[in-house]
Structure formats: structure tokens, C-alpha cells
């Protein structure tokens, strides 16, 4: 998960730093304030990743959105999560200070989770199907592998069965075909309440805006705990990063457990999972609001800021909700272009968010390089070229890695046997905990490994680590594709193939995530390091959006939130994952080859 807090991306005004004497080391050799910040961040991430574990399944199963719409909304949401911190960090630096920004962001995010709870209170969407232009209500019976969908035609209840050629058969009780529907003549849909769909989007909008105020500014306060040159800073951020993964680890087990249950227990409902996320966020706010003076002097308002503008900023943030709402509504209305329309046709049909993301990124990269060539020295320009190359490859990595919350979660739900050694079964949302678990378990080992290699002068450079990460993410997908060959009679693969993918992906993440922000600060021209940091976050935002687009290629037909042909579903996912794996591995090898010239361009930066 790309929660990179390795450096302070927005800076900290000198006036915000308390006197050196207050920086006491009383918590594992670190300032005592780190403990509260660690816990605050862990609870905030508890809420966020618990909600994220539910979101794709909630969209597909409760609101009955198609796979294309579901993955598009998910990609757009996660993209905004990494884009809004640019604005939230700016507001904190110029006006509010980090502490007020964190509190405000926590309140908005808590409200967002509550609104998501309310969006599930009106009952699930009602499935229907248009068969050759005529509407039929869809009835669903059974659970798990026994779950089936039916329509009533001329008084007979007919089971819906998808075929490999994308046609649909309507079957009698004895299994014979009563009606054959040609490809394209069966259109599944869901009748959704306008009110509860509105609440869904409002909840997501509150989360993205609140996250923009919270995410960058709590890490800024962590950076302020240490004086310039304090060697404990990197270790402090490492401890802080562990809080992120510990929070996500537990929430990705507990929130799906409450929402959809485990094994034969069906859970309490979607509202319960979102309510637990809201509780985690509320605890995060309480820790910050009632800190007993422990954070006095940290993250305060800049000395030059006018306090009278606070209310305007808060109103402006709330006024942005309709704008974010429109972006999500536009994503929901997206229709894939006709085959053969070409690249230009694809760009023309992109949602507004896609045009903004791609346009900004495509202008920023060459624009910054042109500025560097004109205003920097030859060495500075070469270092900036290396930085931009690595930013581009970083975008590719997170695009493929972030299939976890979309296509991989849907694959877990549809084509994975969720049994754990035959003792009990977990839910699809809970499979996302594998990544957090492996990060927590492996991070200390990787840290020791890099340290041991560094002492021997053998630690690989940043381009090699990036290349290994890309090869690794490809290898994870190819492992899962191999596992599909051993699917059972229900076209489901064993859970441990999916766990193996997450193990390899977590190892790949540890090769790229901890060094990203540090790399930017080392390679960037000092005068535009803030702009470069913004470009780094923009690259991750673009990756999140494109991850949703990539997931759309794995879309399969569903009725009432259920796949109509599991064999077709398995083949579709295997084909897309194989393409992803091969492309990622090839790109990783290309970067490994480029590591030699990139090393020269980096002029000794490690």
C-alpha cells in the first residue's frame, strides 16, 4: 500500500518547532509525542483500509453496479485520495497549521463513514434484466456456490446461465434450455434508490476531502519532532509506517467480518463494517483533540497566518463536495468506447477525472524537465531526468500493484476457495489483510538485509530496486495464473495461490515504497523540491486511476451481483492477469537494463 511517509513533503515552518529542550526521548528512544501520533495514524488507517476492504464488494453486491462502473468508481476514489493531499498540505502550510488540518480532516472522514453507513440502510438495489428489450425482474436464491439467479417467463421460473460465447441460456428446472438469448441481447441491471446512491457518493466525497487535510499533515508533525540532522528521524518514520500497517492489518479482518461475516455466519450488514471504520476514525480524532497538551508547540498555525481565514477554508472545503460529487457521477456514467475506436477515441471518451489526471501528468513531466534544462546546471538536469524516469516507472508499479482492492478482490469473491485448511472460511474483503501482514512481518527483515548489504558495499541502487519491484509484481500475477490451472470443479483456485501473490507483491513493495520520497528529495533541484513532491503524489494518483481502468478489462457479466458463468470468469481473470504479469516483468527488465545509465545520471545519489 503506497502510504509513503518517509519524508516531510510539505515542509515545516521554523516557527512551528518547539525549543530543542522539549524534544525529550522517552518512547523507545524517541520523542514521547511519537507514541500518540503512531496511535492516531494507526486508528485513522484502521478506518480507511477497513472501508477500502469493503468498497468494491459493496458497489458490486449492494448497489449492483457493473464491474466496469465498480472498478471505475474505486479507481477514481483512490486517485483522489492521493491527489487531495496536495491542496490540504498547502492549506496547512499557509493558513491552518498541521494540527488544525488533521483535526478538521478527521471530522470530515468520520462524517464520511457515517454517511456510508446511511447509504446501506435503504436495502440493496433490486436486480433486473433486459432480455431482447423487455424487462424482467431477477430473483436470487441460495448462498455461496449454490447461489442462482432466475427470471419468470410465461409463468415459468427459469435459471440464468451465462455461456462462453457471451450468450445466455434460460434453463428449466430439469436443466433443459427453455430460451437462448444471443450475445448483447441480455442486459443485467439494478434498480437503485436515487437517495441512497446520492448518500454513497457524498460519503466518498467527504472521505476524499477529509483525507486531503489529514494525510499529509500528520506526517509533517512527525517530522517536526526531530531537529535538523537528528539521526533518529528515519527510524521514527519507520515506526510511524508500522502504525499504518498495523491499523490496516486488523481492520481488513474486522470490518469485512462485521459486514459480510465469515463461514456460515452472514455478518451484521454493510452498515456495521462502515460503522467500525467510523469508530476507528473517531478514536483518531479524540486522540488528537484531547492530547492533554502533549502536542503543544507542534504543527501550530504559521506565525504569519490570519486566523480569520479559517472559517473560509472550512466552508471552501465543504463547498468542494458538489465538485467531487460531479466527478464521481461522471465516472458512473462512463461507457467504454466501441472496439476499433483507437487511442484517440479512447482518450476522447475518458471521464473528466481521467482527462484531468492524464493531462496534468503529461504536461508536468516534460514541463519540469524543460524548466530544469533552462534553469539548472547540467548535473542538476541529468538528476532530474533520472527522477522523472523513476517517477514514470513508479506509476507503472502502483497501477499493477493496486489491483488488490479491485480486480483481485472480485477474483477472490468469485473464483477463490476461501477455506483455510478446511477449518473455516474467510470473506473476499479479508484477503486484503495478507499484504499488511506480510509488510509487518517482512519489513524488519528487509531493513536488516539492506543494512547488511550496505555495510558490504553491495546494496543495490534505487533503479535496481525499482526494477526488481516491477519484476516482482509481475511474478505475483503469473503465480496466480499458474494456480488457475489447478482450479476445482467449481472453477475456484485455492486461497494460498492468492496469498502467494500477496507475499511476492509485499516483497516487491518493500523494494520501492520506502525509498520513493527520499529519492525525490535527493534528486530534485532544491528550488522546486515541493513541486517535485507534488509530481510524485500526482504519479501515484494517476496510478490509482489507471489501476481502475486496467481492472475494467477483467470485467465479467453479473446478474444480481453474481457471475453467470464462473468458467468464463476464471478464464477472463487468468487472461488479464497473465497480460499484466508479462508486461510488468518485461518493463522491470527494461528498467534493470536502464539502471546503468540512470546510475550515471544520478551522480552518486543512493
Topology:
Layout: E1 25-27, E2 30-31, H1 33-62, H2 67-83, H3 85-96, H4 98-119, E3 126-131, E4 134-141, E5 148-153, E6 156-162, E7 168-171, E8 177-181, E9 186-191, H5 194-224, H6 232-260, H7 270-289, H8 310-319, H9 321-332, H10 342-348, H11 352-375, H12 378-401, H13 407-415, E10 416-417, E11 419-420, E12 424-425, H14 433-455, H15 462-484, E13 493-494, H16 495-512, H17 516-523, H18 529-552, E14 558-559, E15 562-563, H19 566-601
Parallel strand pairs: 10-13
Antiparallel strand pairs: 1-2, 3-4, 3-9, 4-5, 5-6, 6-7, 7-8, 11-12, 14-15
Helix pairs in contact: 1-2, 1-6, 1-7, 2-5, 2-9, 2-18, 3-4, 3-5, 4-5, 4-7, 5-9, 6-7, 6-14, 11-12, 11-18, 12-15, 12-17, 12-18, 12-19, 13-19, 14-16, 15-16, 15-19, 17-18
Features:
two-stranded antiparallel sheet, 606 residues, globular, 15 strands, single chain, seven-stranded antiparallel sheet, Growth Hormone, Chain: A, 19 helices, alpha+beta
Low-confidence stretches: 5-23
Mean pLDDT: 85
Shape: globular
Distance between the termini: 23 Å
Arrangement of strands in the largest sheet: 8-7-6-5-4-3-9
Specify the structural class: alpha+beta
**Rg value:** 25 Å
Q: What about the largest sheet? A: 7 strands, antiparallel
Instruction: Kindly identify the CATH topology of the largest domain.
Output: Growth Hormone, Chain: A
What does this structure look like?
This protein is an alpha+beta fold and 606 residues long. The protein has 3 domains: 1-21 and 37-124 and 212-335, MFS general substrate transporter like domains (Growth Hormone, Chain: A), CATH 1.20.1250; 126-191, no CATH class; 348-606, Growth Hormone, Chain: A (Up-down Bundle). It has 19 helices and 15 strands. The strands form 5 sheets. Strands 8-7-6-5-4-3-9 form a 7-stranded antiparallel beta sheet, with no helix packed on it. The protein has a two-stranded antiparallel sheet with strand order 1-2. Strands 10-13 form a two-stranded parallel sheet. α1 (33-62) packs parallel to α6, α6 (232-260) packs antiparallel against α14 (433-455) and α12 packs antiparallel against α17.
Amino acid at each position: 500500500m503506497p502510504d509513503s511517509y518517509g519524508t516531510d513533503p510539505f515542509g515545516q515552518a521554523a516557527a512551528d518547532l518547539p525549543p530543542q529542550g522539549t524534544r525529550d526521548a522517552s518512547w523507545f528512544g524517541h520523542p514521547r509525542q511519537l507514541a500518540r501520533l503512531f496511535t492516531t495514524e494507526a486508528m485513522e488507517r484502521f478506518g480507511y483500509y477497513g472501508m477500502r476492504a469493503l468498497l468494491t464488494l459493496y458497489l458490486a453486491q449492494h448497489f449492483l453496479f457493473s464491474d466496469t462502473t465498480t472498478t471505475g468508481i474505486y479507481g477514481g476514489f483512490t486517485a483522489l485520495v492521493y491527489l487531495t493531499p496536495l491542496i490540504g498540505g498547502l492549506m496547512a502550510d499557509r493558513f491552518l497549521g498541521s494540527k488544525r488540518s488533521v483535526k478538521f480532516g478527521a471530522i470530515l472522514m468520520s462524517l464520511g463513514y457515517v454517511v456510508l453507513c446511511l447509504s446501506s440502510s435503504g436495502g440493496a438495489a433490486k436486480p433486473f434484466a433486459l432480455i431482447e428489450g423487455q424487462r424482467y425482474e431477477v430473483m436470487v436464491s441460495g448462498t455461496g456456490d449454490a447461489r442462482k439467479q432466475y427470471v419468470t417467463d410465461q409463468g415459468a421460473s427459469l435459471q440464468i446461465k451465462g455461456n462462453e460465447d457471451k450468450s445466455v441460456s434460460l434453463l428449466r428446472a430439469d436443466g433443459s434450455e427453455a430460451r437462448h438469448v444471443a450475445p448483447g441481447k441480455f442486459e443485467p441491471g439494478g434498480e437503485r434508490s436515487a437517495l441512497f446512491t446520492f448518500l454513497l457518493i457524498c460519503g466518498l466525497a467527504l472521505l476524499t476531502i477529509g483525507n486531503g487535510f489529514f494525510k499529509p499533515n500528520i506526517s509533517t508533525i512527525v517530522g517536526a519532532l526531530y531537529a535538523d540532522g537528528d539521526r533518529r528521524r528515519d527510524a521514527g518514520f519507520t515506526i510511524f509506517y508500522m502504525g499504518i500497517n498495523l491499523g490496516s492489518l486488523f481492520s481488513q479482518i474486522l470490518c469485512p467480518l462485521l459486514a459480510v461475516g465469515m463461514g456460515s455466519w452472514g455478518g451484521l450488514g454493510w452498515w456495521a463494517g462502515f460503522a467500525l471504520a467510523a469508530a476507528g476514525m473517531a478514536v483518531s480524532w479524540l486522540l488528537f483533540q484531547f492530547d492533554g497538551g502533549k502536542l503543544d508547540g507542534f504543527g501550530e498555525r504559521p506565525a504569519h497566518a490570519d486566523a480569520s481565514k479559517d472559517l473560509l477554508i472550512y466552508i471552501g472545503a465543504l463547498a468542494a463536495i458538489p465538485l467531487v460529487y460531479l466527478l464521481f457521477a461522471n465516472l458512473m456514467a462512463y461507457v467504454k468506447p466501441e472496439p476499433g475506436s483507437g487511442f484517440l477515441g479512447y482518450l476522447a471518451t475518458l471521464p473528466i477525472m481521467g482527462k484531468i489526471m492524464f493531462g496534468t501528468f503529461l504536461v508536468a513531466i516534460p514541463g519540469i524537465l524543460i524548466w530544469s534544462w533552462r534553469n539548472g546546471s547540467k548535473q542538476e538536469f541529468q538528476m532530474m531526468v533520472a527522477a522523472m524516469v523513476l517517477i514514470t516507472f513508479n506509476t507503472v508499479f502502483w497501477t499493477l500493484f493496486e489491483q488488490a482492492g479491485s480486480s483481485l478482490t472480485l477474483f477472490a469473491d468469485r473464483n477463490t476457495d476461501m477455506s483455510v485448511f478446511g477449518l473455516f472460511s474467510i470473506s473476499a474483503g479479508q484477503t486484503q489483510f495478507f499484504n499488511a501482514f506480510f509488510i509487518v512481518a517482512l519489513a524488519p527483515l528487509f531493513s536488516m538485509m539492506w543494512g547488511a548489504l550496505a555495510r558490504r558495499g553491495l546494496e543495490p541502487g534505487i533503479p535496481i530496486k525499482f526494477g526488481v519491484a516491477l519484476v516482482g509484481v509481475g511474478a505475483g500475477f503469473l503465480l496466480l495464473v499458474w494456480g488457475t490451472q489447478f482450479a476445482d470443479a467449481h472453477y475456484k483456485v485455492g486461497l494460498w495461490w492468492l496469498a502467494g501473490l500477496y507475499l511476492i507483491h509485499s516483497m516487491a513493495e518493500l523494494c520501492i515504497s520506502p525509498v520513493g520520497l527520499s529519492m525525490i528529495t535527493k534528486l530534485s533541484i532544491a528550488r522546486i523540491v515541493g513541486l517535485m513532491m507534488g509530481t510524485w503524489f500526482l504519479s501515484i494518483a494517476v496510478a490509482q486511476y489507471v489501476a481502475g481502468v486496467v481492472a475494467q478489462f477483467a470485467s465479467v457479466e453479473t446478474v444480481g451481483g453474481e457471475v453467470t458463468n464462473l468458467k468464463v470468469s476464471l478464464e477472463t481473470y487468468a487472461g488479464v492477469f497473465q497480460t499484466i504479469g508479462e508486461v510488468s516483468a518485461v518493463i522491470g527488465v527494461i528498467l534493470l537494463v536502464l539502471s546503468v545509465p540512470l546510475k550515471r545520471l544520478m551522480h552518486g545519489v543512493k
